[in-house]
Design a protein that fits this description.
By secondary structure, the chain is of the alpha/beta class. 35% of the residues lie in helices and 16% in strands. The longest helix has 16 residues.
Length: 355
Amino acid sequence: MRIQSVDLSQERIALLAEKTFGVLESKLAAALIRYRGDQVVCVIDSQHAGKKAAEVIGIGGEIPIVGSLEEALRYEPSVLILGIAPPGGRLPQEWRGWIVRALEAGLSVMSGLHTFLAEDAEFAALARKTGARIWDVRRPPDDLPVGAMRALEIPAKRILTVGSDCRVGKMVAALEMDREAQKRGIRSAFCATGQIGIMIAGSGIAVDAVVSDFVSGATEMILLERYQTTGAEWLFVEGQGSIQHPSYSGVTLGLLHGSLPEAMILCHHASRRHVARFEGLPIPPLVELIAMYETAAAWLVPAKVVGIALNTFDLDESQARRAVRQAAEETGLPATDPVRFGAGVLVDALQEVLG
């Protein structure tokens, strides 16, 4: 099976988030703290050194933030993970020194960037010298098929998270619904389609690094692998990008037509008004987005948006509840922030539609 496999279960993780640590700014670091927090021994960020993770991003409890690699080594990490997912996925030049020092210290280094560290002569030589491992999680397989609607061969029900923009919580919504479904006794599995999801789930393909002809085929391979290894009744597919985003619409459509979902959950950052990095491009109303996704799905296999997952991390409690009510009233669909208020209403809706 042509799937990236990453086993972090035995690793002690130091997260590099130098001058970027925040919910959106270092979303990879924040996600690993949320879903692999018991393995994170420290965060490196000189701007917040001396604080705890929870003081900066609201989760992570007492995970310490340190200002240097030397301080990080006191916590005996086994791997340094680059905690950012910047536009374009390029390695910040100023981070080279951090990677060099980590490899010199014998730490493995894991990256989710489009810049493949193992192809860098200096990094590769240091890794050979110290026996450290370089993991480029975003590297796609080189033998992927083109899409052929293979998802229809899978007995499991397929649920895709779609978004109003990038970085709105599509992965988190899928993970939280997967957790809720399993609590209810439904055999479900999370299908990772991005580098962060792969680090959390342990397998997948970063479809935004796949040549465009093969995005839908890569998606099919992810679903087939997860079904074959888990026997899941429901497969929650992690969405990417947004159908109207000028930069990322291609991967969004490839995922939609590769997964051929039977239901979709629309994800939205409640306080966001414009498409990320395009201030002159407003995010359409939720009802228009629903129509866009349902139209695009129907080009191959009809599917409905059955619920709204909001990201309200930057709102207070009353503002968040008001945003949830407004989304439900606007769309006529159940809405929630699956982290803040649970994914129950979304799974209720899925059970009603999928049986």
